[in-house]
Amino acid sequence: MGAWEEYYLPVIGMVSLEFIYATMVIMNRVALVKGLSPRIFVFYRQACATLFTSPIAYLSRKETSNAGMDFRLFLLIFVTSFVGVALFQNLYNEGLYLASSSVTSAMFNLVPAVTFLMAAVLGLEQVNVKRSSNVAKMLGTTLCVGGAIAMTLLRGQKLLNTQVLSVTHNWLVGCLLLLASVFCWSSWLILQVPITKRYPDCLSLSAWTCFFSTIQTGIMALVVEPDPKAWVLSSALEVAACLFSGIFGSGAQYFIQCWCISLKGPLFTAAFSPLSTVITTFFASMFFHEEVYIGTLLGAITVIIGLYVFLWGQAEEMKEKKELEPPIVTTLDNTSCATNWEQTLLIHNSTP
């Protein structure tokens, strides 16, 4: 039972998680192509997530959960909810609608590399070209960015299918929106470091984030979609997409990922993310006749290779830090902050 719990269950959990994400991406795109507004969909998704997470956070609340909450932290959570959920989800779903399920899934393998790049620019990550770990991270970042450019600009010859669910909007615009959503998500990850350090109750933080983002996405949707008829979910597919994304995408997915991280660490969970790209591409082309292009496929493979090169560099860097650690740690706060940053850099697909 010990080996089963320590090894097999985390693997089953992460594979299930990637199937959940792939199912969510495909289901959402079909609903959007069928006529559901991306802005209204995001609002309903966050409303479902709030209804799901709030009771759990309340029942499992800690006595000191609100002890560190002040106005500045409250405002920071509100701002990060806008950047990392409201703005991110709107860009992401609009890009999903304009591009394709497979491209959307592949683009999110960029998150660790983009987060590393932003952290290096902000001075949160030190880059030393003399270390093999840093060279690997820079090479992985370059491969990821190059693969994303290939997916965006080099569609090439069609490999599979003539798309049944055709959309007349521009493919390039969809890819650029997805890239913008990646930068939003990476910014949110970086901002989680100071927030979680001051407010470590993750369940409560998740509930607050869902609540704020529900208000924000509701206002955004009302401005763009004032017609009451647009807010009516006219099919079972639209209702299922909202419920599945809210409960599983923003709820169960969070718990499974946190549980796997507690057992195996963040690097283990990050290594499974390309699996969702493979699953999404396979099911989207087989069951929904989504187009697959040579440029898209080669770009996705390049991004996945870049991700694993980056993860190898991250693992080597963590190994180097452990070797350099003194036997007695005197600065607990700095150690905690470094650990939080490494985990934040790797935990990139908890609520996409």
TrEMBL record:
<feature type="transmembrane region" description="Helical">
    <location>
        <begin position="7"/>
        <end position="28"/>
    </location>
</feature>
<dbReference type="GO" id="GO:0016020">
    <property type="term" value="C:membrane"/>
</dbReference>
<keyword id="KW-1133">Transmembrane helix</keyword>
<dbReference type="InterPro" id="IPR000620">
    <property type="entry name" value="EamA_dom"/>
</dbReference>
<keyword id="KW-0472">Membrane</keyword>
<dbReference type="InterPro" id="IPR030184">
    <property type="entry name" value="WAT1-related"/>
</dbReference>
<feature type="transmembrane region" description="Helical">
    <location>
        <begin position="136"/>
        <end position="156"/>
    </location>
</feature>
<feature type="transmembrane region" description="Helical">
    <location>
        <begin position="171"/>
        <end position="191"/>
    </location>
</feature>
<feature type="domain" description="EamA">
    <location>
        <begin position="173"/>
        <end position="311"/>
    </location>
</feature>
<feature type="domain" description="EamA">
    <location>
        <begin position="12"/>
        <end position="151"/>
    </location>
</feature>
<dbReference type="GO" id="GO:0022857">
    <property type="term" value="F:transmembrane transporter activity"/>
</dbReference>
<feature type="transmembrane region" description="Helical">
    <location>
        <begin position="203"/>
        <end position="224"/>
    </location>
</feature>
<dbReference type="Pfam" id="PF00892">
    <property type="entry name" value="EamA"/>
</dbReference>
<feature type="transmembrane region" description="Helical">
    <location>
        <begin position="267"/>
        <end position="287"/>
    </location>
</feature>
<protein>
    <recommendedName>
        <fullName>WAT1-related protein</fullName>
    </recommendedName>
</protein>
<feature type="transmembrane region" description="Helical">
    <location>
        <begin position="104"/>
        <end position="124"/>
    </location>
</feature>
<dbReference type="InterPro" id="IPR037185">
    <property type="entry name" value="EmrE-like"/>
</dbReference>
<keyword id="KW-0812">Transmembrane</keyword>
<comment type="similarity">
    <text>Belongs to the drug/metabolite transporter (DMT) superfamily. Plant drug/metabolite exporter (P-DME) (TC 2.A.7.4) family.</text>
</comment>
<feature type="transmembrane region" description="Helical">
    <location>
        <begin position="71"/>
        <end position="92"/>
    </location>
</feature>
<feature type="transmembrane region" description="Helical">
    <location>
        <begin position="293"/>
        <end position="312"/>
    </location>
</feature>
<feature type="transmembrane region" description="Helical">
    <location>
        <begin position="230"/>
        <end position="255"/>
    </location>
</feature>
<feature type="transmembrane region" description="Helical">
    <location>
        <begin position="40"/>
        <end position="59"/>
    </location>
</feature>
